[in-house]
Amino acid sequence: MTTAMKTSHLLLVGFLAAGPALALQPPGAHTVARAEVVFFEPEKFTDVRDNHMGDYKRTTYLDQIRDHLLEQAKYFVPDGHKLTVTFTDIDMAGDFEPWRGPTWDSIRVVKDIYVPSIKLTFRLTDANGKVVKEGTRELRDLGFMMKITTGFRDDPVRHEKALVDDWLRADFPRVRKN
Question: CA 20 to 30 Å from 58, out of 41, 52, 108, 138?
Fold first, then answer.
């Protein structure tokens, strides 16, 4: 058996072993040790699309926001605690201006009049399941165009990630250094 065959065989076995565990997760939820992210009725979100007539299913924008929050949680959620975040609405920065012509319906125009906003609920629990902190937040950054986001310059959801980062810094003390 060649090395490539052994590797593919091990990957297949690993995937099949993980299959039942993956099936137990509710649709729309994603968990990493310290955090869980749920998008509640994403089809009703104000704007999470990549073109004028698009919808959230055709993009990876929600996946990118989820993955970013899960990655950042390790810096703000203490060991043994769990942060559950439910996004109830997202309105991405910018908007589509199809009246400019047929080639403009897939170009997101980002201006300071198209402010990003996110509505979410959250619950932080300790190792025993006791609620440490919970609440509802409406995140909005009227000055988002003035921020320097060099780390995310080519990222289509950079403004939404910055909103999530600002919220984490405001509501939770940092527990780890980079």
Answer: 138
Q: What residues make up the domain containing 127? A: 27-171
Q: CB–CB of 141/116 below 8 Å?
A: yes
pLDDT tens-digit series, residues 143-169:
877 876 656 667 888 889 999 999 999
175 contacts 75 by C-beta, under 8 angstroms? yes
CB 70 within 8 A of CB 35: yes
Cα–Cα distance, 125 to 92 (Å, whole number): 29
- Could you tell me if residue 149 is inside a domain? yes
Q: Are strands 117-125 and 82-91 parallel, antiparallel or unpaired?
A: antiparallel
Residue with tokens 């810096």: 75
**Spatial separation of the C-alpha atoms in residues 88 and 43, rounded to whole Å:** 10
pTM of the full structure: 0.73
Residue 10 falls inside a structural domain: no
